[in-house]
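lol ok so funny story. i was supposed to be doing the assay writeup but got distracted and ended up predicting the structure for this chain instead. priorities right. anyway since i did it might as well share w the group, maybe its usefull for someone
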Amino acid sequence: MSVQQLSEQEIIRREKLQKLRAAGIDPYPAPLFPVTHYSEDIKKNFSEETKDQFAEVSVAGRIMSINDKGKVFFIKIQDKQGIFQLYVKRDELYPGEDKSEWDTLVKHGLDLGDFIGASGYVFITKTGETSLHTKQLTLLAKSLKPLPVVKRDEQGNVFDEVTDPEFRYRQRYADLVINPSVKEVFVKRTKMINSIREFLNERGALEVDTPVLQSIPGGAAARPFITHHNALDIPFYLRIANELYLKRLIVGGFDWVYEFSRNFRNEGMDRTHNPEFTVLEFYVAYKDYFWMMETTEQLLEKVALDVNGTTDVTVGDNTISFKAPFPRVSIYDAIKEHTGIDISNMDEAALRKVCNDLGIHVDNTMGKGKLVDKIFGEKCEHHYIQPTFIIDYPVEMSPLTKKHRSKAGLVERFELMVNGKEIANAYSELNDPLEQRERFEEQAKLLERGDEEAMYIDYDFLRALEYGMPPTAGIGFGIDRLCMLMTNQSSIQDVLFFPQMRPEKMD
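and the output, tada:
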């Protein structure tokens, strides 16, 4: 059992807590506090002409600075919009002879990080700062742990953020308080998702939910997380993709369905991979992958405009344009361009030799599809900075994709590459149940060879296809990676509120 080791500051704050309670001041009161205004709205709208509208104002927030002038305190609080100053004068807050509560609460009881509420009227100080002339002050929540110290300018804005990733990712709640730019990333993430929803809903798509716990982990080539269903006494898997369930809904008669899906893959972690991640998938009846490329261009153009006000997005040292149209390059042409080798007619043995010649590590569990994927991933992918559709993959790489209408051995598939990474994967969906069964059986052989990412045979999905699925186009977007692009973040951990980390040692 761990014993909590308190710092000197934490001990002092707990002592203040007890003194407040002893004086009859509740440090965690139950009643609501009637907030009427927020910081930026006040600053934007207050003037000599509008001052009557700000004669009775109530604000609340976390204390970010305290300037003790004796009988006057200047306290800056942070609310959902920003920083706002309170002018707190002892003799106005406590006009009587008894000043004991001033001493207990304001003079000696308040700390940085505490939540307070204040009521009064808005005015402009001699230094020109819009402030609240406080008539009433209420402690709303006592902070027992001090926030990390950051440097702020005279307006209270942070100019020297805390950058330690161990602290920032593990204690995101504190990171959000002291690093305002972090909050803006997540506000943009929500804008991005709302923009996508708006695009799809306006076109008649239906948002749906599909199971997270699945008896067969289907829809992607990935290693699943395994759990156990006690009531049924059988293994279950956290979903690696929602594709097969969404296509079941196309079988059932919906023409366009979509889902923002939390997926789980029991694989490595790096700057662009997290075991738990968000994917948008949508499926549209009577369409193909050419239509899906055009729709993807339209969607991303809108998202960039809605989030950043421009189709040109800064990502590191690059300016990336989401202005349609995007180039289209076949995967074989991409490999030939960047390696000088034409692999279009090679069998598995020849591909394995190419990998060895190029210094690409492979093992005996990998079939033809995995070998092509490794070559492209290590030798080509990073070259595609501007949005580019990589199209027409070999059939071995795409067990759920319809064969190409005119190119033997290929399928109608594209991946969208941006800034050297895949952010979307799409197909003309395979809707021939007999061929789909054959593809699943090929995947089963790879499982027997030891490929933990090969697909299982989903017999229920095959049964659904046997009822008939219309021609369909489908796509999956990596929402976290797309958010990285739209917010200029280099690590997926920076666009996840609570990224996975090793358990903390609580000594």
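The domain at 8-146 is CATH 2.40.50.140 (OB fold (Dihydrolipoamide Acetyltransferase, E2P)). Residues 123 and 131 are 6 Å apart (CA to CA).
back to the writeup now i swear
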